[in-house]
Every structure is written in structure tokens, then in C-alpha cells.
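$ fold --in a.seq
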Amino acid sequence: MSKIWFVTGSSRGFGRRFVEAALSRGDKVAATARDVASLSDLVVAHGDAILPLALDVTDKSAVVAAVKQAHTHFGRLDVVVNNAGYGVFGFVEELTEEQVRAQFDTNVYGTLWVTQAVLPYLRAQGSGHIIFLSSLLGLASFPSTGVYSASKAAVEGLADSLAQEVAAFGIKVTVVEPGPFGTEFAGSSIYSTPVAGYEQVRAATNESFASMQMADPSIVGPALLKIVDAQTPPLRIFFGPLAAQVVPHVYAERLKTWETWAAVGVGAVASPT
């Protein structure tokens, strides 16, 4: 049975590839983008199977209207992909209030507004699958990734809670955690103005990032199709090899530290008198 998708951030990157994968197998997609002209070639190729919707996910009322329009047009929603987002990168001391607020407005609040808007429809139909695009950087942070990592860590928390809240309604939740891919993500990201004094750590960080191998983005569309077709999809899944290499090491180090300092933490709790 074909599925009805609602995908945010469809103009490029992962979002574009998700939309193309769904359309290529006969599914129908409500594809949102700030500029729907970027979707015109897909409309030509797929006709009524795609509903292009202009949307800025930071506008809550516009999100509600877009979700309603998509549901009215197609009659149901099966897969909702919270893909819209971008990166702000810079050392913590360098970040401006405007940069931080804008990062959370899109990556966190935009994701929340879409999720809240679709839930009444999914609960009423007793089914659905919500996909959250997180990142390796939502689980492991590095110099210059602080605010982006914070935004994706917030998405991780939302998804964890939501999965437990909606399981009884037949709604599934999956968090996709990609490592670096050869997409347009870096070019659309925002970078802070450097503060003097961090030259050494900045040079080491840039060297480390430059040496990272980019995964092939052609894998992400077919991978997501397998996830949404699974009878029991994962709550979390890595995309690309780097996340699977880095995250287990990070968590092993955290477990080791917690164990080493466990007695101190427990001893800090006052005993009842």
C-alpha cells in the first residue's frame, strides 16, 4: 500500500532525497520548502503525487495550516519527516544571541510545531510514523558544535518522550542520527566570528573535521524507505559509518566516568535523619 508523506525542508539535502525516494516508488508527498520553486522539477515529473507547500517551520500558525492542507488534500498522513534544519557552528564564547535563538527556532521549535500539528490526525487514524532528523552531534559534541549539538540533543529528548506517549495510538517514532554526508549542509550553515585566543584548538578542530570522510548521500532515501516499511522500526538509527564509530566510544567513556565517580555522587546525598 502506498504511503502519504509530509516532509519538511524538501528543497535540498536529505529532505530532497527522502521526497525523491518516496515518489519514485509510487508514494505521495506533501513536500514543504521555503521556496517551492525548488520543487518544480518534481512537480513536472510526478504530477499530482506531490503537493508542494511553502513553509517556514518557525511560523507555528503556518505549520498548522500546511499540515491541515496536506491532510485535506491526501486524506491521511502516514509518514512525517521532521527534516528542516541547519547548522550554527562556533565556539561557545563566540555565539551571538541571535544565532542561538535562530538555531533553536528552526531545529527545535520548528520540529515541535510540526509534531504537535500532525499528532491529532495520526491519533485519530490510529497509525503513523514520525521521523526526527537528529545528528551524530546530538549524541557527541566537539569544539565549535556546541549550539548545534544542543539543538539536536533537545530533539533527542523530545523524540524519547513522544515515543512513549504515542505508542498506544499505533504511532511509531524514529530518530535518524547521521554522521557527515556529502550534501549541501555545510554551505547552508552559519559560522561565528572568531574570538582571539582559540587559535590552537581551532586549528586542531579544523584539521580533524577536514580529515573526515563524507558518506554517500544516495543511501539515505532507500534507507528511510526500509525504516518506514518495517513492522518494528528502530527508535534510533545511525546513518553513515562515522556515527557508529564515534558514539559507542563516547558512551563507553561516559559510563566509565560515572562508575569512577559513583561513590562521590551517592555520598553527596544527605542521609535522612
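$ fold --in b.seq
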Amino acid sequence: MEIDDKTLIARILSGQREDFRHLMRRHGGTLLAFIESVIGNREEAEDIVQETFINAFRSLRQYDDGKASFATWLHRIAYHEAIRRMKRRRFPALSWDEDERLLKYAEETDADDWLKDIAEERLQRLDKAISLLSEYDQMLLRLYYEDDRALKEIAYILDSEASILASRLRRIRNRLKKELQRTDEDIK
């Protein structure tokens, strides 16, 4: 019988520190895939995952299951560690335009319907269009569409606001739609 995260955390905090390895096994693969998608380097992603687990273990008493699931909390720690490392490598910092802070939740657009109807032959062009996006936008798409995370969870991980992310996702979908329409015209 598998023990849930909450029970494992309680046991760890009561002195059964060896139980932390269960959490590492349970969440390590997902964290590695997430960080590798952010960083683009498997070895460095492995280092970041290790650092994430060290930081999580040290601050386990600060974890609040009322704010987020344990997996989401780990993703937040990992994301911030990845950003620290990227800054050390002098990557450009991720920032939001001031006007984006004022945007409210974006209404779904016809871009969603259009993207849902993409035929098989367009999938390769979609992958190429996605690869042209910034690493941050690619990560946002992965968290939302592949990992099926709610905007509230993603906002917690990225230390942002759900409304800002909703607007950004809308713009990304529209950008992808335009890029695919352009490539459709080039083919004709």
C-alpha cells in the first residue's frame, strides 16, 4: 500500500527522515522532465533536481498543504532554483511588461478551436512553431497542456498571477495560429 505525500511528510517531520527517499522517488522523474524543459540540459537539470530536494527537505516544516500540493510546491522550488542558475549563466531575466499586470483573465478565443482542429500534417509545423517560442513560453505551454496543471498551480510555481498567465497563453495560442496560417499559405 502506497503512503500519500501528506502522511510521509508527517512521518519525516516526526523524525523518520529516511522516508524522504519515497518522496524523491515519487516526484523525481516529473521534476527532472520539468527542469530539463526549462534548462535544456539534462545534467544541469539533474543537479537542480538534487538541489530542489535538498532545499525541500530543509524547509519541509514551511510546506503548507493548504496553499498547494506537495508536487506543486516542489515544482515552485525547482523553478526558482533553475532561474537562479540561469541568471548565474547570465541568461536574460524573465520579466513581464507593465501593461500585462493590468490584464484580467482572457476570454477564450477562436484560436483554441482552430488549434484543436489541426490535421496530422500540421503537427510537425506546430512543433516547429512552438520551438520558435521563448523557453518560458514553451514551459508555460507544457505545464498547462502536457502536465494539465491549473492556471492557479502554474501561477504558484512561477510566482505569478493566474490572470497574467491566462493572457500570456491566449497570446501564445494566437501567435501559433498566425504562424501556422503563414506556413499554410507558404505551402499553397
